[in-house]
Design goal:
Elements: H1 2-23, E1 34-38, E2 42-46, E3 48-52, E4 57-67, E5 71-85, E6 90-97, E7 101-104
Antiparallel strand pairs: 1-2, 2-4, 3-4, 4-5, 5-6, 5-7
Length: 108
Amino acid sequence: MRTLILCVVVLCVVVVGVTSYAAGQARPGLVQKANIVYGPSTSVTANTISHDDATRTTYARGQVRITSDASTITADEADLHHLNDTKIAVDLAIELRGNVRVVIAPPR
C-alpha cells in the first residue's frame, strides 16, 4: 500500500513539474516585436531593433514594417539613417534589403 501511495505522489509531482515547464515555454507564433516611432506619423516594427548614436542609425532586422500615413514598406532588413527632424516631420534615409514591398495609398 505504501508503495502505491508513493508511486501516486511521484507521478503527481512529475505531472505538475512537466506541465509547469511546458507552460513557461515561449510559443512559436507569439513573438514580441520591437517598435519605434519617428515623428507624428512614421513607425518601424521589426523582430529586433538597435540604434547607434554615433552614426544616428537605427538597425531593424527580421520582418521589418515601416508605416506612415500614405505608405507601408516591408523588408527583411532596414537601416534608417536619421538625417534631420522638425516639429512636424523626420527626414530618414532608408536602406532596405531582402524581400522588399512598397504599398502607397493616397490619403483619404
